[in-house]
Design brief:
The chain has six helices and seven strands; from the N terminus they run ββααββαβαβαβα. By secondary structure, the protein is α/β, with parallel strands linked by helices. It has one domain: 3-Layer(aba) Sandwich (Leucine Aminopeptidase, subunit E, domain 1), CATH 3.40.220.10. Helix 3 packs across helix 4 and helix 5 crosses helix 6. It starts with a strand and ends in a 5-residue tail after the last helix.
């Protein structure tokens, strides 16, 4: 299996499924999940209202993208309360999301990086890499982790020299717009 570290917009990922997470105590929805909620006429907000446990830790929803995005499915992962989220819970979130994707027979899976604290650091990449490695021999061919920070992606480039890194953040580094 190939591990890809990417910059740029995860909604442009051309794979089989994208995994996103959101905290249960952050209202209104934020980030990529908020944009998707807008794009799909508040379907995520409505689902959250109907199923209040949706964003509690371990909650999952499989959402079809209806041809509006380059991937057919989205797995929304509940992260629970932000102040209780930990490195162990992040690894478990990645594992549960990847297992859901494997259950759908996905071959190419993208995942937005999930910070444990306010700022994302190398531990997000370490946790994703470790979780992907623990899956062992699976039909999954590519796992992409989206990193929003060009600085973090540059740092990862020096640590994960055998991983593919691409996307807008990498392009901004190569064109001299990054650090």
């Amino acid at each position: 299996m190939n591990l890809h570290l990417r910059g740029g917009d995860p909604l442009k990922y051309r794979g089989d499924v994208l995994i996103l997470g959101h905290f249960s105590d952050i209202r209104p929805l934020t980030g990529t999940v908020a944009y998707l909620d807008w794009m799909f006429n508040a379907s995520i907000s409505n689902l959250w209202k109907a199923r209040s446990s949706l964003l509690e830790f371990g909650g999952q929803a499989l959402l079809p993208t209806l041809g509006k995005l380059p991937f057919p499915y989205l797995v929304l992962m509940g992260l629970g309360r932000q102040e209780k989220f930990s490195l162990d819970l992040r690894q478990e979130t990645y594992r549960l999301g990847l297992m859901a994707a494997l259950g759908m027979e996905a071959k190419r899976v993208g995942c937005e990086g999930i910070p444990v604290s306010e700022n994302m650091d190398m531990s997000v990449i370490d946790d994703f890499s470790l979780t992907v490695g623990k899956l062992g021999d699976t039909p999954l061919k590519n796992a992409a982790l989206f990193i929003p920070s060009p600085e973090l992606l540059a740092e990862a480039r020096t640590v994960y020299v055998n991983s593919e890194m691409d996307g807008d953040a990498m392009e901004s580094l190569e064109s001299g717009h990054g650090p």
